[in-house]
Amino acid sequence: MERRMIFKPTISRWRGSNRAGFTLAEALAALAFLAIVLPVAVGGLMIANKAGVVAERKTAAARVGGRILQELVVTGQWKQTSTGVVEEWGHQFRWQVKNQSWNVDPFKLLSLQVTYSVQGEDFDVNLSTVADGSLL
């Protein structure tokens, strides 16, 4: 008995309308969509990052300003306009204090402005308190 091999013709998967994959037009449309969406998404992430850094630095500036304002009131150095620089956690905070007359004598209104930089742009925090001018 002799055995013969019988071969069946194979049916191609690529024939007819049941093709798999994308056409060139679909691929180009997807690339065009990505070219529009990616820059917008990256820009949004950069803005969100900057807003987070500004908020964090603003909190630190308010803390530094509160400490400076308390020190000026306790030591009595608030009577003259003064400026200074404080470095904290690797960040620089510039401050300036001004005293103004207030509507009730002998009290003075002390205004402190703390300035800080984020990505080359300056921001500031303003703090105020009232000091009794007759004590010192």
Order of helices and strands: HEEEE
Mean pLDDT: 84
Shape: rod-shaped
Strand order of the largest sheet: 1-2-3-4
CATH architecture: 2-Layer Sandwich
Sheet with the most strands?
4 strands, antiparallel
Topology:
Elements lengths: L23 H52 L6 E7 L2 E11 L5 E12 L2 E12 L4
Antiparallel strand pairs: 1-2, 2-3, 3-4
Word description of this protein:
It is a single chain. With 136 residues, the protein is of the alpha+beta class. The protein has one domain (32-132): GSPII I/J protein-like (Pantoate--beta-alanine Ligase, Chain: A,domain 2). Helix content is 38%, strand content 31%. It contains one helix and four strands, in the order αββββ. The protein has one helix spanning 24-75; strands at 82-88, 91-101, 107-118, 121-132. The chain has a four-stranded antiparallel sheet, with helices on one face. Strand 1 and strand 2 form a beta hairpin. It is rod-shaped, with a radius of gyration of 35 Å. It starts with 23 loop residues before the first helix and ends with a strand. The model has no long low-confidence stretch (mean pLDDT 84).
